[in-house]
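Design job #97: recover the sequence.
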């Protein structure tokens, strides 16, 4: 009910008394507003009359009938009662003015049936049954004029919009303002299209109930025409679809979650594919590095032994200087080969317990020269710094790589800091004690894209000729082999901080074994088992120069034949991988079968994970990795001969 309608009904005490007296009368009666000429109040009998007439003819018996409106105007103009017969309605409407304190406050309307329904006539009963059905269906049913003005609605719709069934007259504002603001344009557009084009589809919209809450509804409508084809009225049915919309939202959210999960899976798959490509690329490079390092180690081994033997025979000082230069070059080449093995993560394990400050002190001057005079290099050691068990050469190589990267990022000028400190942390396992090595610079920093690829083989941001893209993979290989962890922190314009976590070792620093030590021998007999002719011959000459008695064999079966025919040897020096059907395990089995307790020293240019350790797991013999010097070989031989460790049974 509009605010003006409420003011009309509450404007005079007499009106309230008349309305109360009409409320329960069986006779259809109503009060009309003299200003708007609209029904301000109608009792239940009058409402039922309007419903029947609206459903049957699509008209309001007072507001839409010209004769009724004329009689109303006559009543108000002449200030006396007026009546009109409405055969279509089956009632006579009687209008009478109602005055209070000399003012016209309302027009009373009484409806009297023109003729009583014949006994046994089924039409009124059918109408009552139809109205009962319409008012008890869960659907909202409404009627409107062709211009869209709603003039009747069933009880469920009244309850939803108004919270009551007693309405003085239809409140058009309530109907329109109850539609959700976001849906009003779409709903009006549908209704206009329906009226103009007769659209058969419906519209869904949100409608606010009397409790202030919105629910979703779906509306369809149909135009009722007269026999002449004139549009009489529109009948609409509105169904509550709030539960359906709720499930629809749930399904939409579930679908969005599935799509997001799918996108996440695709992203993970793309990452895994990138990682797979990187792993495959790394494996390919590792195989290449391992193969090249094996051949290079053999060549360097031969060159090293020959240069050592030449050095013993040459007396000319100038020639000795040249030999020293050759020897140093061979050592550098050996270091390069070792770096290749380190990159491929197949490095021979030569780790020792060392203090970081000891190792750093030995390379500090080298590092300062490498970074240049315009780089301020500072080295900080934490309190009670622990030891680490690492391969010293690769530890030093990793630090130099990181320092040079920092220098290049600062364009040869800036502040570079190397810090050592104890740290307790957990990485992919229980917490442990580490020694952290942090290298930081104030250079250009890295983007996320660059940072994601720094461990990729051959990836570099340096100009052509200044970077190979192998430095950071080598650092990563060293850290992994040391059972450590690496972290990279960098932002564009904010510099870079790389931290290596190396497991802390509680043992004391180990003294390094002297590399050049005189080898004392007693003329023992050695059997060299090697399938590479150049390696075999060079090794034989070198050991012969050391005073050993040397025999050689190019295959395992030949060596077994020599031993079977009575060859007496004190030690067998054998390559751990031999061509042919018989390998070193066959040799060891043959020694045990014959009860020969001959110690064996294996040598190889391969990395540990490429060795046939499965076949040798029951034969724990020492392995010496090439390239090694003749003195290293002589010391190892003497250690074995002096210990005289028997062949295990």
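Job complete. Output follows.
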């Amino acid at each position: 009910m509009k605010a003006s309608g409420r003011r009309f009904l509450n404007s005079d005490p007499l009106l309230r008394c008349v309305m109360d007296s009409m409320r329960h009368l069986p006779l259809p009666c109503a009060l009309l507003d003299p200003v708007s000429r609209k029904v301000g109040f109608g009792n239940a009998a009058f409402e039922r009359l309007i419903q029947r007439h609206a459903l049957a003819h699509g008209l309001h018996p007072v507001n839409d009938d010209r004769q009724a409106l004329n009689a109303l105007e006559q009543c108000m103009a002449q200030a006396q009662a007026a009546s009109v017969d409405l055969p279509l309605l089956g009632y006579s409407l009687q209008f009478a003015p109602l005055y209070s304190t000399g003012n016209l406050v309302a027009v009373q309307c009484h409806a009297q049936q023109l003729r009583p329904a014949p006994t046994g006539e089924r039409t009124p009963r059918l109408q009552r049954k139809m109205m009962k059905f319409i008012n008890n269906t869960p659907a909202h049913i409404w009627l409107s004029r062709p211009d869209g003005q709603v003039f009747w609605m069933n009880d469920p719709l009244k309850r939803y919009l108004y919270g009551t069934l007693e309405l003085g007259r239809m409140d058009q504002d309530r109907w329109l303002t109850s539609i959700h603001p976001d849906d009003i344009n779409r709903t009006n557009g549908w209704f206009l299209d329906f009226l103009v084009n007769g659209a058969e589809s419906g519209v869904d919209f949100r409608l606010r109930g009397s409790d202030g809450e919105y629910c979703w509804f779906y509306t369809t409508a149909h135009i009722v025409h007269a026999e002449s084809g004139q549009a009489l009225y529109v009948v609409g049915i509105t169904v509550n679809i709030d539960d359906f919309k709720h499930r629809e939202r749930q399904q939409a959210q579930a679908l969005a979650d599935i799509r997001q999960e799918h996108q996440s899976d695709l992203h993970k798959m793309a990452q895994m594919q990138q990682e797979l490509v990187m792993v495959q690329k790394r494996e390919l490079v590792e195989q290449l590095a391992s193969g090249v390092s094996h051949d290079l180690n053999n060549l360097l081994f031969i060159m090293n032994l020959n240069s050592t033997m030449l050095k013993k025979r040459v007396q000319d000082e100038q020639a000795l200087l040249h030999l020293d230069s050759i020897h140093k070059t061979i050592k550098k080449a050996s270091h390069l080969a070792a770096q290749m093995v380190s990159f491929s993560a197949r490095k021979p394990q030569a780790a020792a317990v060392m203090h970081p400050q000891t190792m750093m002190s030995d390379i500090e001057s080298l590092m300062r020269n490498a970074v240049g005079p315009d780089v301020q290099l500072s080295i900080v050691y934490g309190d009670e710094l622990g030891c680490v068990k690492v391969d010293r050469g690769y530890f030093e190589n990793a630090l130099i790589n990181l320092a040079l990267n920092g220098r290049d990022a600062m364009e040869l000028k800036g502040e570079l800091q190397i810090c050592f400190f104890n740290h307790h942390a957990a990485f992919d396992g229980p917490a442990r004690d580490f020694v952290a090595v942090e290298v930081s610079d104030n250079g250009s920093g890295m983007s996320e894209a660059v940072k994601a690829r720094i461990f990729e083989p051959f990836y570099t941001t340096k100009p052509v000729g200044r970077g190979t893209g192998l430095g950071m993979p080598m650092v990563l290989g060293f850290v992994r082999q040391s059972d450590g962890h690496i972290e990279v922190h960098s932002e564009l314009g904010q510099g870079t901080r790389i931290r290596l976590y190396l497991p802390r070792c509680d043992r004391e620093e180990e003294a390094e074994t002297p590399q050049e030590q005189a080898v004392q021998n007693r003329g023992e007999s050695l059997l060299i088992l090697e399938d590479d002719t150049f390696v075999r011959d060079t090794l034989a000459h070198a050991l012969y120069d050391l005073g050993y008695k040397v025999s050689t064999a190019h295959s395992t079966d030949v060596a077994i034949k020599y031993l079977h025919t009575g060859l007496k040897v004190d030690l067998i020096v054998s390559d751990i991988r031999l061509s042919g059907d018989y390998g070193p395990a066959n040799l060891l089995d043959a020694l045990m079968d014959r009860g020969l307790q001959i110690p064996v020293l294996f040598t190889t240019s391969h990395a540990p994970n490429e060795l046939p350790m499965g076949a040798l797991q029951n034969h724990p013999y020492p392995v010496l990795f090439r390239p090694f010097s003749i003195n290293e070989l002589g010391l190892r031989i003497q250690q074995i001969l002096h210990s005289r460790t028997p062949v295990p049974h």
